[in-house]
Amino acid sequence: MKVRIPTPLRSYTGQQAVVEADGADLGELLEDLDRRHPGLRFRVVDEQGRLRPHMRIFVGEEGTRDLATPLVGTGEVTLVQALSGG
What we know:
Elements: E1 2-4, E2 18-20, H1 26-36, H2 40-44, E3 55-59, E4 62-64, E5 76-81
Parallel strand pairs: 1-5
Antiparallel strand pairs: 1-2, 3-4, 3-5
């Protein structure tokens, strides 16, 4: 499955904007993504296994914060990192 990576996290993917990962649900996909690109999952999911507050994930065109979201029939996952500043 294609996973779109936001610019701030591309240092983990060798600057690739789109990478491949597999999983039956979003949690498994993030684990596979971390096997392929070590350290990336920790930037998306916290120590308690919850999506970090500044992260948004779209499965297809639907936004979700649930790591149990199934990926059957979905061709693309997009990670979005909210930026803040002052």
